[in-house]
Amino acid sequence: MLFFLLKGKQIAELNVNEEIRSKKLLVIAPDGVQVGELELKKALILAEELDLDLVEVSPESKPPVARLMDYGKYKFELKQKARESRKKQVKINVKEIQLKPKIDTNDYRIKLNQSKKFLEDGDKVKFTMRFRGREAEYPELGQKILDNLRDELEDLSMVESTSRPDGRSLTMVLAPNGGKK
User: In Å, what is the CA distance from 168 to each residue of 42, 131, 135, 140?
Assistant: First the structure.
């Protein structure tokens, strides 16, 4: 059985026409009606008359099931469906904002406005409070700043995760309430 790649994903390629090894096949017409159990040679002749391919769709069954179809068109439609499903996916980015416990009020407002913009765009925001030197002895100062951010952004977001003070850093992740605009 052959494989082909579709945007990094491996998809099994079905046995087509002369690649089929079974002597007898249960043949299905393009409209879904069963033609019946035919020998491989007769099924290939029928496919050639209809200007279609004989594709083995279920090689494990007894007898193996083959379908009359345009195999190139079938592969193209699979690729189109995969492309459409990728378009509908929403990719959520995580934006990180780093803070220090001794942040100035103006810097705090700038970080707050940045995080509002990220949340409105549908991105998650990860706040990382970094402690340097003796700042690590007072993690409650950093926690207070993170709590203030959480309170000011509660209309736009919800808390996804918080971490305990582990010495040098403290984190909080906020997820947007609505979807991506």
Answer: 75, 5, 9, 13
* Tokens 């069963």 sit on residue: 34
Is the residue at 55 inside a domain?
A: yes
179 near 90, Cβ under 8 Å? yes
What pTM does this model have? Answer: 0.54
Residues 103, 59 share a domain: no
Same domain flag for 134 and 74: no
Each residue's pLDDT, cut to its tens digit, for the chain (181 residues) gives: 444 444 445 456 777 777 787 888 888 888 888 888 888 888 888 888 888 888 888 878 888 888 888 888 888 888 888 888 888 777 788 999 999 999 999 999 999 999 999 999 889 999 999 999 888 888 888 899 999 999 999 898 999 888 777 778 999 999 998 755 4
Same domain assignment for residues 157 and 123:
yes
Last residue of a domain, one of 71, 87, 103: 87
